[in-house]
Structure formats: C-alpha cells, structure tokens
Amino acid sequence: MTLEEKIAKDLIVAMKARNKATLRSLRAIKAEILLHNTSGSGVVLDHTGEIKILQRMVKQRKESLAMFEEQSREDLAVIEREEIEVIAAFLPQQMGEEELTTFVSALVTELGASGMKDMGRVM
C-alpha cells in the first residue's frame, strides 16, 4: 500500500471520527503529495521520495514550533505539535542511541578499523 492510499484511508477514518488535528495533518500530507505529482518534473514518487516529503514537513513544523514557543504563542504551538505527531507516525521508526552504537561498533569490528586513518572506510 502506497503512502497516498494509506493517507486516503486514514482521511476517511479521521472524518468519521471528527478528529480535526488528524484531518488537518492528513490533508497537508495529501496536498504535498499532490503538489509533487503535478509539479511537471516527471519524477515518479517512490518510497524514498515519500519519506523525504514527510521529513521535510516535520522539519518545517518543528521550525514553526520553535518560533511560536519563542513568541509565547501557545495556541499556534499546540497545532504544530499535533501535526508533527500525526506526520511522524507515517515515518519509519528511527534507531535508538543504543542500537546505533551497537551497529557502528559491529561495523568497525567487521572492517577492522583501528584508528582515525580508517574513518573513511567506516563512513
């Protein structure tokens, strides 16, 4: 199931539940996908492209959230937090710090890296 199909299904559920925050966020995602598809670039939206769109949307909202909190606009900050939560639910789970440390340690061992001169191979 593509992101577009998942959004369409969740949009119907949110409408029936009358969940305004989820509805607003899903419509924003749908609009971004539609904007990409009608941009005329000819680039077909794949899974990686969908993830990039969602990451960009979360980043934009986090920047807005920081600005609203700085200006003591809690009413607008709440909206941004809600949208970040809904959009982030469509992103893949990121590795935790412990998992990342384990992965990097295993990679260093596998490559036999022993110092800073081997950093390029590890990267």
Strand-helix topology:
Layout: H1 3-17, H2 20-37, H3 47-70, H4 74-88, H5 97-111, H6 119-122
Helix pairs in contact: 1-2, 2-4, 3-4
Q: How does this model look, in words?
A:
There is one protein chain. This protein is mostly helical. It is built from six helices and no strands. It has helices spanning 3-17, 20-37, 47-70, 74-88, 97-111, 119-122. It is extended and about 55 Å long. The two termini are 33 Å apart. The model has no long low-confidence stretch (mean pLDDT 87).
Rg calculated over all Cα atoms: 19 Å
For the biggest sheet, the summary is: none
Share of helix among residues?
over 70%
Give the number of helices: 6
Shape: extended
Order of helices and strands: HHHHHH
Count of β-strands: 0
Distance between the termini: 33 Å
Low-pLDDT runs of 5+ residues are none
Structural class: mainly alpha
Q: Whole-number average pLDDT?
A: 87
Q: Strand percentage, roughly?
A: under 5%
Short description:
The chain is mainly alpha-helical. It contains six helices and no strands.
Keyphrases for this structure?
74% helix; extended; mainly alpha; 123 residues
